[in-house]
Here is the input.
Amino acid sequence: MTFANTVLLPVDMQRAFDEPSWPLRWNDACDRNGQAVLSAWRSAGLPVIHVKHDSVTPGSTLTPGQPGNAFRPGFEPRDGEPVISKSVNSGFIGTDLDLRLRRLGIRTVVVFGISTDMCVSTTVRVGANLGYDMILVEDACDCFDLPDGAGGTIPARAIHQAHVATLGFEFAKIITTRELLAGLTSASPAAA
Here is the structure.
């Protein structure tokens, strides 16, 4: 695996998703895996651009100034790591993300975050439609139980699996944290 012209894009790793107003999540390893990916990526000296949801919906836990808008512990941007502020599901819509990536000569975008079926999926799909090679670190993502429209609940894990399958079929290469870390370890400095 080569990482030349590749950027890491953590999506919406924010505190709001731990608040009781949000449905149950399933992936207890999301933060641990995401932090491992982010740490290894930084150690390799590769570029990181953070995507953050700044809601414009009144009362949202993701509204700027609300505690939930803050980054989750361990996902705070470091100096020199840009933050893309979005108010819709895709990190590309209404932002300068595409322009930034093109100026950096990026061809491949590695994505993880919350939630698999919403902002992560939409960002991956739009990125693929714009011509980027998208890679999803699926076990560093999480999503929520959702109502099924008939009075029941679709478990978050099932929603995650369905979206990962769809993304892998047409929009992205699907990998695990372990696979990404192994790739970073084996990549030569010249390849990175």
About this structure: The chain is about 30% helix and 20% strand. The first strand starts at residue 6 and ends at 11. The CA atoms of residues 95 and 181 lie 29 Å apart.
